[in-house]
Design brief:
The protein is globular and about 65 Å long. A six-stranded mixed beta sheet has the order 1-2-3-4-6-9, with helices on both faces. The protein has a three-stranded mixed beta sheet with strand order 5-7-8. Helix 1 packs parallel to helix 11, helix 2 packs parallel to helix 4 and helix 6 crosses helix 7. It has twelve helices and nine strands. The protein has a single domain, classed as 2-enoyl-CoA Hydratase, Chain A, domain 1 (Alpha-Beta Complex), CATH 3.90.226.10. By secondary structure, the protein is an alpha/beta fold.
Length: 305
Amino acid sequence: MPPADGRPTIPAGHGGTAALWSTFADRLMTPTSRTAELTPVSFGWKVNGRVATMTLRRPERKNPLTFESYAELRDTFDRLRFLDDVRAVVLTGEGENFCSGGDVHEIIGPLVEMRGRSAMDELLAFTRMTGDLVKAMRRCPQPIIAAIDGACVGAGAILAMASDLRVGTARSKVAFLFTRVGLSGADMGACALLPRIIGQGRASDLLYTGRSIDGEVAERWGFFNRLVEPASLNEEAATLAKQLADGPTFAHAMTKRCLHQEWAMGVDEAIEAEAQAQAICMQTADFERAYRAFLAKERPVFEGN
């Protein structure tokens, strides 16, 4: 049973792993904010039940990103770590496109101007900010489901990549376009994360050539988890998000943390980390709820603690 204060006891660990889980578990068990405190202006924000939907806007330009939306997305995903009334997130685009990447006029033009002034510090501040968005997405405990239709290119493809699950349409187009504008494919963690999803060879293909793949190829390569019809995309993504939000969300957060961190571990270290993670989850009330429901031949009702 969990202690009276609701925080699980952290098992004795090897090296610094126990301290890592201690910090993680404490953050999950002590949320400090509610969704009412979030009022983003550069993208849509809607909460239905325990699922938040973030909608990239400006469909007339295929929902491009700006300096402001990059920063606000980063800050919102960072705040999600401390919310107790959001258990899953859907990230989508308004209209028939997901995201066309950085706005040519509002981002690319100013970056070229910075280059002309040899403003390396400003360029680095921008690339670090965009990378911080991906870090925030991977750090927030809620599963993020990207609902993808139409254009999913450049930084838009990165947002999809940084999500936990991707639901797409056959007509969508995915492209990591950075080499097409004279930049490297090494952007916002793409060289680390994309090979984990589709493999080193296929990631190399997309990152070197900048070519696009349609939804059917994206699903066959494992980038999309499933394909749906465009008319049902948002409904399918919302249904999946609700399924996750109604599940053992503390345990989901542990799964997300392990999936992200264990690529930097050896097998023995990963097994030890998972032993500690599972021992912590066994102290949650959700674990006992599942057991009691099984004995009563009922479906468990999880509360995320």
